[in-house]
Amino acid sequence: MVSATPEAVVVCDAQGVIRLWNDGARRIFGYSSSEAMGENLDIIIPAKLRKRHWDGYHQTMATGHTRYGDKLLSVPATHRDGHRLSIEFSVALLRQDDGRIVGISAIMREVTERRNEEKALRSRLAELESRLAELESTVG
């Protein structure tokens, strides 16, 4: 299932080192498994978001709690060639039998086209609302 799914499946250890990188991750982010394995998530996290990401990651590893365990997250990411992506993902903490956290898994989907369409629709709606307000003030 992990190798066949079109979604990116990425597993990192407690230090944030990539331990599993499926073909979906290769397709979305542009890095082969051999290039990604042993690296950390900085290869796909935009530079301006890295500190925030790692602060949260290390806090989660230390406490065993994430506020994102049951939510679908939407964030920007970076492709190997440098272009920006929009992704949605969910995470699951990986625990040993004694409850100690040993890593985290994420299932990611690239949604750049949809996000761009939504942005264009919001812009068009704002433009139309502005025109309507102008017409109402002229008529009224």
From TrEMBL:
Keywords: Coiled coil, Kinase, Transferase. One of its GO terms (molecular function) is kinase activity. Residues 111-138 form a coiled coil. The keyword Coiled coil applies. The keyword NAD does not apply. Residues 1-46 form the PAS domain. Residues 71-123 form the PAC domain. It holds the Pfam family PAS_4. This is Histidine kinase.
